[in-house]
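In response to a reviewer's request, we include the raw inputs and outputs for one of the modeled complexes. The two entities were modeled together in a single run.
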Amino acid sequence: MPDIIRVTYDEMLEEFVRILRAVGFTPERAELLAQIFAENSRDGIASHGYNRILFFANSVKRGDVNIEAEPRPVARFGAWEQWDGQLGAGIINALACTDRAMELAREHGIGCVALQNTNHWLRPGKYGWRAAEAGFAFICWTNTIPNVPPWGGTEPRVGNNPIVLAIPCESGPVVLDIAMSQFAFGQLELYRLRDQELPVPGGYDAQGQLTTNAAAILESARALPIGYWKGSGLALMLDLFASLMSGGSSTYQLGQQTHEYGVSQVYWAVDISRAGTPAVLNRVITDTLDSLKTAPLADDNDAIRYPGERILKTRADYLAHGIPVDRAIWQAIREF
Amino acid sequence: MPDIIRVTYDEMLEEFVRILRAVGFTPERAELLAQIFAENSRDGIASHGYNRILFFANSVKRGDVNIEAEPRPVARFGAWEQWDGQLGAGIINALACTDRAMELAREHGIGCVALQNTNHWLRPGKYGWRAAEAGFAFICWTNTIPNVPPWGGTEPRVGNNPIVLAIPCESGPVVLDIAMSQFAFGQLELYRLRDQELPVPGGYDAQGQLTTNAAAILESARALPIGYWKGSGLALMLDLFASLMSGGSSTYQLGQQTHEYGVSQVYWAVDISRAGTPAVLNRVITDTLDSLKTAPLADDNDAIRYPGERILKTRADYLAHGIPVDRAIWQAIREF
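The model returned the following structure tokens for the whole complex.
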């Protein structure tokens, strides 16, 4: 059984700043990065928060992340720009490109930044929240190393290429944040550690049978794309759009490296305020969400939830009562 | 057993023009619409070709489609425009908006047309092929009436909201054309008629169990979204983007009608030629497709295919040997 303690947001932020300073980031950059790691933890996304800070710090120590790099524009085509992340911190590049896509949308109605040579952006949904809280509808996605077999194959050749779609709403943004594999690898690891069955099949075992056994999937490296052939096709298309639009590496090219760095991403912002008053837009959204939430429930469900709905409740809980953290992980963070 | 005959593309086109003239379309419009129906048949998409022409003709006779309507611009925000389909033929509106999105992309690098008050566009992939053949990367999607339960619910409240992603390539476009339900309703009908099991679960039976029995799914009206909760979330977001960006009806609003008309769509074009020479772009794509196609095969698979790959082979076959058509359906078309 994990031994869980509660850590305040401020305590966590302070530890993260200390760690990021220790691996060489400037005070401002350490503060910015620490804030995102702490916010991801506060929103209940531990896998891209406190569970990842030491992995990130060690990748910086290994030299995988250029701590001084600034993203820079490569080409400007009007409402679409290409930027180069120069192998800097993925979070810093992602924040800059999210903001730049919003600027372009302010100017052209829609805006797109395609980013080459960047690194893992941690929690993708963060950028959707940021844009939606600023009043923009927003879509972004990334490619990854090959980690899912294409439909009909047994070896990883497509990425799980997470995508985010976000819509601003008065009651809080609607933010979908999903990978093209049925389960993230961190989730498979957790199910294996806890010796729990997955709720639905997440991949194939060594015999080629669909299974809910996470250990068998991690062993076979045959994770299941969402919707079988459909997710395999979606992952391919997201990769082609990201690599072609940015001029950066494709999943195939990333697979030629020893490990994942220098991925390609796209950020699309829509100045949705042009389409109507906040009252008109909110009415469309809340009518839609209400119709979902009032559908009759399937067995074993206590509620129908829309994407992002749980985040605000988790956030309020964790800010009031502290962020639950595994004691051993917190100890390791303190001792870094 | 269905009794299949082969009909040439030209014969089919001629019959379709006659039918469309008979329900009132002008010669040019009848020609344009007939061509799309015939091309969809020629590409092997019978469900959006000869299998649908009489349904379409009858919907025109009922007055569901305004045969004289022209799409018109409602608002221009720069690279993003809102258009009104004025309840005209979905194909005519879709062709116009695809072309307009490409014009906007030529001007701004990317372009988006959001379309309100349109009707069923038949085969969505058609518009991806059109744009990719003109050299554009392209994404479009539509909303629909509620026809899939949201995750955790038992009554249809989200649409299956088909989406297309297309990339131009020298050897032929890569075009993904998928709905957010694991199987289209036409497919479920076919499996039921043939008394065949679905290859993977496509929904729930009346007892709430996942099933591969198409009849049970059609009876329960509980089609499965791709990737369970993920496809349910994707369908919701695609609907919100389409309805908010176009100022048109949401899936919730379409559900208040007696049947489906006046749907909302978005068309995104990218002038991908700005990102590199054809040689550079084709290299990225063909390296990627080659890496997929050379992956070791899972049991029972003869090949790994990329989205759209089969279309060109089908097209060549059907143009050379005629389009296979059920004799009874062809008889009904001849007698209309």
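As requested, we also summarize the result in words. Chain A has a mean pLDDT of 96. Chain A touches chain B through 81 residues (CB under 8 Å).
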